[in-house]
Amino acid sequence: MNRSKVTHIARKFTVALMAVVAMGLNSCDSFIYDYEGDCDPHYKVRFRFDWNLHFADAFPHEVNAVTLYIVDPSSGDIVWQKSESGEALKAEGYLMDVENLAPGTYNLMAWCGEGVGPHFTVPEAGHHTGLTCTMARNHEPGHDGGTVRSDINRLYYGRIDAQEFPDGEGTHIFTVPLIKNTNEVNVVLQHLSGEPVDKDDFTFTITAANGSMDWDNHLLDDETITYYAHTTASGTAGVTWPQGPGDGVETQAARAPITQMSACVASHTISRLCTEQQKDVLVTVYNKKGEKVVSIPLIDYALLVKGSYAKMDDQEYLDRQDKYDLVFFLDEGDRWMSAYIYINSWKLVLQNTDL
After folding, report:
1. Residue of 221, 343, 218, 215 lying closest to 283 (CA atoms)
2. pLDDT in tens, the chain (355 residues)
3. Residue 142: CB atoms within 10 Å
4. Would the pTM of this model clear 0.85, i.e. be above it?
5. Which of 28, 169, 293, 330 is the most buried (most CB within 10 A)?
């Protein structure tokens, strides 16, 4: 075969190969998209929970149920929704597949956590304003509002607006950030005298009108809910008697450190804390006679101990912080020594105990 004929065949093969490649690129069966099988857009959603004081994503460790709502922003209608739960959410790189959704611009909303269902109700809705979230409560004789006596499962809220779902081929991932809406509050009573503290001698409550949240996670008007401790326990703990700033040498010597003292701990789980209710969320402890031993506004005191987060916005701090440990000291008459309180290991020496 002469050289010109070989060259002619090579050219024809090259042209044919280019035509095949071009056909492959213009069809959706090209090997380039074998992992998806076509050239349609594929949408996936990632959930992220780093709105905490560790500033790290705790979603795989904390959240085991998600419900995503996709909303048409022009009408407010819910055009797509899906729920997933269980071990799948703990898998590395978990993404929710969004199927059969037309390209366009959408808002994404989510109510998440194992609390949805047993402790919080989100109704079926066709419009985003119907996606409220209401905490279950009981109504007991002698209470004007609701009561909660159990440990509440965790609840999270997420939302991003105006997300463009393109019609271009490939995979498009959207991230929904989550805020935790439930909080742990542990109240500790300690006797400075070292006398035993019997957990059955006290009743621990937190009162707040925070059991209903709107579609945008703002609190709705609600009845006052009394949260009772779901768990109480007595024990001993090591602690040093606090010294006042004006204590002299003799006073300090008289207040020798106590290495072991009796204490009782009461654990509560409560719903969302918002600055708009700053004076209205009360931690109250009663003795056996029904007398108030302790009564403080939780949010006021919590914001006093922001510490290294002092420059953080108050609402952001309340949203990122989800655990509060309050330690009160009792005298021999089971009265609160109101000059001292520890919150999340921060010692407050109060000058105005009427806060």
Report:
1. 343
2. 554 544 444 455 444 444 433 444 444 433 333 444 567 899 999 999 999 999 999 999 999 999 999 999 999 999 999 999 999 999 989 999 999 999 999 999 999 999 999 999 999 999 999 999 999 999 999 888 999 999 999 999 999 999 999 999 899 999 999 999 999 999 999 887 778 889 999 999 999 999 999 999 999 999 999 999 999 998 876 555 555 555 555 555 555 555 567 789 999 999 999 999 888 999 999 999 999 999 999 999 999 999 899 999 999 999 999 999 999 988 877 788 776 788 998 887 766 544 4
3. 5
4. no
5. 330
